[in-house]
Amino acid sequence: MPALLLDGKTLAAETEAALLARVERLKAQSGGKIPILATILVGQDPASATYVKMKGNACRRIGMESLAVELPASTTTETLLAQIDELNADPDVHGILLQHPVPSQIDERTCFDAIALSKDVDGVTCLGFGRMAMGEEAYGCATPQGIMRILSHYGVPIEGKHAVVVGRSPILGKPMAMMLLQKHATVTICHSRTQNLPAIVAQADIVVGAVGRPEFIKAEWIKEGAVVIDAGYHPGGVGDIELSALTEKAAAYTPVPGGVGPMTINTLIMQTVESGEKSIG
Ligand code: NAP
Q1: Alpha-carbon dihedral angle through residues 88, 90, 94, 98, given to the nearest 10 degrees
Q2: How far apart are CA 156 and CA 239, in angstroms?
Q3: The dihedral sign for the CA sequence 95, 55, 107, 90
Q4: Whose CA is nearest to atom 8 of ligand 1?
Q5: pLDDT digits over 47-63, tens only?
Q6: Domains along the chain?
Q7: What one-character-per-residue DSSP string does 189-217 give?
Q8: In angstroms, rounded to a whole number, what is the distance separating the alpha carbons of residues 206 and 152?
Q9: Ligand 1 nearest atom to the CA of residue 239, by list position
Q10: In sequence order, what DSSP letters do the residues of 206-253 get, joined into one string?
Q11: Is pLDDT of 46 > 90?
Q12: Which atom of ligand 1 is nearest to the CA of 263?
């Protein structure tokens, strides 16, 4: 039987229509105020610049504004922290996105953690992560939260299932594992020093590829009927999982492109609208 396509692109587009209505309502109720997402881009990395532009475009599609802050590649940690402080103090800014990665001379973790919890709509602070992991209110990290939204939308059962997350980065693997645990999955986290990776992946009811290597996770490792989530995106339109051989074997899968990627940006703007509603509404 063909696997169910977990269509993030369509879900994101449908959600945008609802977000547009929410922004319009907020605007009407508040005498013209709208949520604003501040984006910070440090340096000229073309991929990062493209991601920031896509996020700004998504804001505009739903009637929100983005405030683009662009800093030179030579920016110091202190300068970036001062910029974040300014945005934290600005009552018209409802969300702050610091585009990852920043140039190597900057202490990225310190800068992420300087973002006020109430404006951490990308879910990158240690405080937000800790609160999420404890089941307390916090904005989830955008990519894994977007994945959870796809799973929920398609009614994929999580409770009691064995989820294997391959990757343990702060913005993806670790929060992904915690979110699945919150939903009562039994979670295994794999990384570069994991032994017998194929055998562990073979046990997964839900497998999440967050490795950053093209088609690193092989279709033959994955058991029949598993739910396959591919967070990767590489030139040529391939992800971290060998998806082409899974469209019949898996129960469901996220395509690349059109799966996880659109949901990441969608989650970021959705959480900015939520922050705007809390502060303006
Ligand atoms: P990352 O920071 O480079 O982390 C990669 C993770 O993979 C690390 O935890 C690493 O383990 C693990 N890994 C590397 N080699 C491995 C191996 N041989 N076996 C098992 N694990 C291995 O990457 P990331 O930022 O999490 O991104 C992961 C993927 O998601 C990338 O393809 C990226 O493009 C994609 N991504 C997509 C979105 C989106 O919006 N769609 C957003 C973010 C990221 P160690 O910790 O041991 O080094």
Answers
A1: -50
A2: 21
A3: negative
A4: 167
A5: 999 999 999 999 999 99
A6: 31-116 (3.40.50.10860), 142-261 (3.40.50.720)
A7: EE-TT-SSHHHHHTT-SEEEE-SSSTT-B
A8: 13
A9: 32
A10: EEEE-SSSTT-B-GGGSPTT-EEEE---BTTTB-SB--TTTTTTSSEE
A11: yes
A12: 40
197 lines ligand 1 (CB under 6 A): yes
Nearest residue (CA) to ligand 1, atom 1: 169
3-class secondary structure, 67: strand
Ligand 1 centre distance from Cα of residue 169 (Å): 6
Q: Which residues are catalytic?
A: 55, 99, 122
* Residue 87's pLDDT band (cuts 50, 70, 90): very high
State the DSSP code for 158. Answer: -
The model carries a pTM of 0.98
Whether 53 is in the pocket of ligand 1, judged by its Cβ within 6 Å, is no
Per-residue pLDDT, 281: 78
Atom of ligand 1 nearest to the CA of 173: 26
pLDDT at 238: 96
3-state DSSP assignment of residue 163:
strand
CA distances to 14, 266, 271, 277, 278 from 97, in Å: 23, 13, 11, 18, 18
Q: How confident is the model at residue 1 (pLDDT cuts 50, 70, 90)?
A: confident
Q: How does DSSP classify residue 121?
A: T
Nearest CA to ligand 1 atom 19: 192
Annotated binding site: 167-169
Say how far apart CA 259 and CA 274 lie, in whole Å.
23
Coil/strand/helix, residue 164: strand
- Which candidate, 123, 221, 108, places its Cα nearest to that of 172? 123
